[in-house]
Amino acid sequence: MRMTTLLKDRRGATAIEYGLIAALISLACLIAFQTLGLNLETIFTTINDALNR
After folding, report:
1. Which helix (H) or strand (E) holds 53?
2. CA–CA–CA angle 10, 12, 16 (5° rounding)
3. C-alpha distances in angstroms, 3 versus 7, 9, 13, 15, 46?
4. Helix H segments across the chain?
5. What is the pTM of this model?
6. Which pLDDT tens digit goes with each residue over 1-53?
7. HSE-up of 14 (CA within 13 Å, CB side)?
8. Using CA atoms, how far apart are residues 53 and 40, in angstroms rounded to an integer?
9. Is 11 helix (H, G, I), strand (E, B) or coil?
């Protein structure tokens, strides 16, 4: 009786799915921010160089 209750319970699977989705979103954000960060550094360096002339 207890085993059938555990097998029908989907809360654990849902929590794992949400965890995987959050991990994938975090990974995508990390990659995007690293790429954007390098571009922003170049932009600010160019602006700084132009202002210092």
Report:
1. none
2. 120
3. 6, 10, 16, 20, 65
4. 2-8, 11-51
5. 0.55
6. 576 775 666 777 788 889 999 999 999 999 988 888 778 888 899 999 999 98
7. 4
8. 20
9. helix
Tokens of 14: 């849902």
What span, in angstroms and rounded, lies between the C-alpha atoms of 25 and 30?
A: 9
Alpha-carbon gap, residue 36 to 30, rounded angstroms:
10
Q: Which amino acid is at 38?
A: L
> CA-CA distance, 30 to 50, in Å (whole number)?
30
Residue with tokens 């319970």: 9
Q: What is the DSSP letter of 10?
A: -
In one-letter notation, the amino acid at residue 45 is T
d(CA 53, CA 36): 26
